[in-house]
Amino acid sequence: MDLNAYRAEAEAFTESLLREYLLHYSGRKDDFEIEAIYDRHATLFSRDAVDSLRESRNRELLRFAVEGHIGQGVKSEEAELARREAALTVSVDGDEMPYRQAPVAQANETDPNRRAAIDSARNEVLERELNPLIHGATQRSHALARDLGWASMRALCEELGGIDLTVLAEQTEAFLAETESAYESAVEPELERHTGLGFEQLRRSDLPAFFRAPALDRVFPSERLLDALDATLAGLGLEGGAADNVIVDAEERPRKSPRAFCAPVVVPSEVHLVIPRVGGRDDYDALMHEAGHAEHYAHVDAALPFEQRQLGDNSVTEGFAFLMEHLTTDAAWLEDVLGADEAEPVRSHARATRLVFLRRYCAKLAYELQLHEARDLDAMRSVYASRLSGAVHVDWPSATWLSDVDPFYYSARYLRAWAFETHLRALLQERFGERWFAEPEAGAALRDWWSRGQAAGADELLAELTGARLDFSVLLEDLALA
């Protein structure tokens, strides 16, 4: 196989696919026309291509081919899912709202019963219209993994993903056990402050409103959102230059995805940052997180091969994203950039919500490890509800047992990234002080790290920068629950 020719076509495919993703999920295009893109590049994902790349020992291109082979096998379901999501509506007490905007309405709703009604109506639509498609795609992807010679999707991802999922699961199970006794006492005061509910009254439908925390809106004014990002980049000496490669879309559209995202269409020259407007701290968190991705991709060395610019261990880019997001809870950043006179309410709320997210993702990983080895897929519905309920201490509906799963154990990338970010933040504070975000020298360090793309995994990059070992237990100390 000519690897250079394969790389060139792989990059062309990725650009087309990401551009289609961008147009559809930003709400600018109704259809999600990925079938034709896969068909034009079908040879990338053939069985012959997979076998040739196995012989080449280029793990990242092999993983690209295998994941593309599976993506090709479920492209019809994925396209139909996106089309339905964009067209569906949710009815609550006679009010109709776009399916994708229901989570935004739920987060901003002050009445707990109406929040529950929105959640229930959305789950009903999910069960009726979307879950059958997701179920079929999941079964098909598992069958394709076995057809390629792996015992299960888990076995495929462990071999090609470069992550020891067993070790990570042991670390995250230990985190759940060690935070169990302190969990409610750490979270409940913030729950009561922002929703008026304790754990006894809490429903899963109340969590978006808890994360939204409108009482903190005075600290996070909507009109300052984009200016805050600009001020941060300017403080790091990152305005202009590669930053001009980032196109920010903060427009409101009815069919825009409620989930912010970064689309690195051409790395490093064309990177899109798409953010919906929910309000308050949610918007700042989402913008800064996706800006971490966008700045990373926009500063990658263009001379690197495709797989090092755009593939690799996404724990790295997620780590940079969490690093930028964490600034929204940093007392010095809140004071300098937003003029906040009291950061403690923000920090207390952030600590509580972070603990909820961490425990939720620990439970998700444990569930997904079972899901992707299961022969009886339907039996996993109850496992999902049990795992999530036990971790978050709220009755978790089973309707999202498949829609809550990102492909190829992406939950593991998030978990590793949370640990990776903790080390990066400590390193920047040690070198440049607590206001590292206002130091051009810190920006120069970030540019150096970003320029490497994802040639090294999070483990390798962390070892090079600090000599430390990537271990999820670092989050225990960072949360300071004791």
Task: Give a verbal description of the structure.
This protein is mostly helical and 482 residues long. The protein has two domains: 3-161, no CATH class; 165-479, Neurolysin, domain 3. The protein has helices spanning 3-25, 35-40, 47-56, 59-73, 75-87, 102-108, 112-147, 153-161, 165-195, 207-212, 225-235, 280-298, 306-310, 314-326, 331-338, 344-371, 380-392, 410-432, 440-451, 458-466, 474-479, and strands at 89-92, 95-98, 246-249, 261-266, 270-274. The strands form two sheets. The chain has a three-stranded mixed sheet. Strands 1-2 form a two-stranded antiparallel ribbon. Helix 9 crosses helix 16 and helix 12 (280-298) crosses helix 14 (314-326). It is globular, with a radius of gyration of 22 Å. The mean pLDDT is 95.
Say what oligomer this is: single chain
Helical proportion, percent range: 55-70%
**CATH fold-level name of the largest domain:** Neurolysin, domain 3
Helix/strand-derived class?
Answer: mainly alpha
- Can you identify the CATH class of the largest domain? Mainly Alpha
Choose one word for the global shape: globular
Percent of residues in β-strands: under 5%
SSE sequence, one letter per element: HHHHHEEHHHHHHEEEHHHHHHHHHH
Strand line-up across the major sheet: 3-5-4
Domain count, please report it.
Answer: 2
Please tally the β strands and state the result: 5
Number of helices: 21
What distance lies between the first and last C-alpha atoms, to the nearest angstrom? 56 Å
Tell me what the CATH architecture of the largest domain is. Orthogonal Bundle
